[in-house]
């Protein structure tokens, strides 16, 4: 991925690349206040704009949360706020750290010729959290990588429906199932690389936003941009387009409350990702096609995809329970939490009541199974 910006933006990158040190030593806010107001017009390519967004987003999260949940910074200085909002508008992204910053833009290969594996990957920008933070980001990169064959398969599947090709559709569904199973296996690496207590007590705060967050009930003032505070959700796995795409293709319909949150998270995706999901939604219905075709291999393969997705969502619930619910209990027993985080213990960094949301999404996925006699 892109790792450097034009020299004009050195003040941004010098801070962004030293974030863990500056945050841990409580020096980041002082550096940000001394930062010059830079013009965005020298950001020429899309990749440069994405790297700039990631750098400014990471500096913003560190700036706001440097002192923890008890003392968030309520005003983003103009030298950070103005260029961040401008770059965000150019990219069609919100001015906060999003999944496409933390994960999709934030990796590089140690050996450019080597494999896309965790041993050959490195993050570009970090927060406090050391190896656990690196593991959290890079395992999520591998989850996205595991999804690629599945995304290709559903494009093939949509074409197969248009062509009325049962054989091609069956192939696509089988490939989609394998991809979903690979995603679950990739997610399992979280346990090898990420310490739950470090994730909960050190990393999580830097992914938290200022919407639906009791620590910042009125939002954040972006100085020089708006006089009123603005509210944006923190990072969330729901900002990845992968499971949205699988749900759209398989025709899985979630309950009204979940749909509201999931659709809001699409505004936190690159516009091309959101457009892809809208195209999937507008495409001919896979479920209708399979129901019209009657019992057979395609119906069985469809159900196997849904079952694999249920297993993935069950596994995700277990991961969340370990990394947030159990970790919160341990932190409380050791007296490590400030009074405020109790309100956040059952909430994701995106602001949802996590377990109830994830369980609802899993139940609705289960309900999508088709009866062979349907």
UniProtKB/TrEMBL annotation:
Record Gene3D superfamilies: 1.20.58.480
Coiled coil (residue ranges): none
Name of protein: Indoleamine 2,3-dioxygenase 2
GO molecular-function terms, A-Z: heme binding; indoleamine 2,3-dioxygenase activity; L-tryptophan 2,3-dioxygenase activity; metal ion binding
GO cellular component: cytoplasm
Xref: InterPro entries: Indolamine_dOase (IPR000898), Trp/Indoleamine_2_3_dOase-like (IPR037217)
Functional note: Catalyzes the first and rate limiting step of the catabolism of tryptophan along the kynurenine pathway. Involved in immune regulation.
Species per Swiss-Prot/TrEMBL record: Mus spicilegus
GO terms, biological process: 'de novo' NAD+ biosynthetic process from L-tryptophan; immune system process; L-tryptophan catabolic process to kynurenine
Domain of life from the UniProt record: Eukaryota
Binding site for heme b: 316
Entry keyword set: Dioxygenase, Heme, Immunity, Iron, Metal-binding, Oxidoreductase, Tryptophan catabolism
The enzyme's E.C. designation: 1.13.11.-
Catalyses which reaction(s): L-tryptophan + O2 = N-formyl-L-kynurenine
Family (UniProt): Belongs to the indoleamine 2,3-dioxygenase family.
């Amino acid at each position: 991925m892109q790792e450097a910006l034009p020299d004009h933006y050195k003040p941004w990158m010098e801070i962004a690349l030293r974030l863990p040190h500056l945050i841990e030593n409580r020096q980041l806010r002082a550096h940000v206040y001394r930062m010059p107001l830079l013009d965005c017009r020298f950001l020429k390519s899309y990749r440069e704009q994405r790297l700039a967004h990631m750098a400014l987003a990471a500096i913003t999260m560190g700036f706001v949360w440097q002192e923890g949940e008890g003392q968030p910074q309520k005003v983003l200085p103009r030298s950070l706020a103005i260029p961040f909002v401008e770059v965000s508008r150019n990219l069609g992204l919100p001015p906060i750290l999003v999944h496409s910053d933390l994960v999709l833009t934030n990796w590089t290969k140690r050996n450019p010729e080597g494999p896309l594996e965790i041993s050959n990957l490195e993050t570009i920008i970090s927060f406090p959290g050391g190896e656990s933070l690196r593991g959290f980001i890079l395992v999520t990169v591998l989850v996205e990588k595991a999804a690629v064959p599945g995304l290709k398969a559903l494009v093939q599947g949509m074409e197969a429906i248009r062509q009325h090709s049962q054989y091609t559709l069956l192939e696509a569904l089988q490939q989609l199932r394998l991809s979903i199973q690979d995603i679950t296996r990739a997610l399992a690496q979280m346990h090898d690389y990420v310490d739950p207590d470090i994730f909960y007590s050190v990393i999580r705060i830097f992914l938290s936003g200022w919407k639906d967050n009791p620590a910042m009930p009125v939002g954040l003032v972006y100085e020089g941009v708006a006089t009123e505070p603005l509210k944006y959700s923190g990072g969330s796995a729901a900002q990845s387009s992968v499971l949205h795409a699988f749900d759209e293709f398989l025709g899985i319909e979630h309950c009204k409350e979940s749909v509201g949150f999931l659709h809001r998270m699409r505004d936190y995706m690159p516009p091309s990702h959101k457009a892809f999901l809208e195209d999937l939604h507008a495409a001919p219905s896979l479920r209708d096609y399979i129901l019209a075709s009657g019992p057979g291999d395609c119906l069985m393969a469809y159900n196997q995809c849904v079952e694999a997705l249920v297993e993935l969502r069950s596994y995700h619930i277990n991961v969340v329970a370990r990394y947030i619910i159990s970790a919160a209990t341990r932190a409380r027993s050791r007296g490590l939490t400030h009074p405020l985080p109790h309100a956040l213990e059952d909430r994701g960094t995106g602001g949802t009541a996590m377990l109830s949301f994830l369980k609802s999404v899993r139940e609705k996925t289960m309900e999508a199974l088709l009866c062979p006699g349907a």
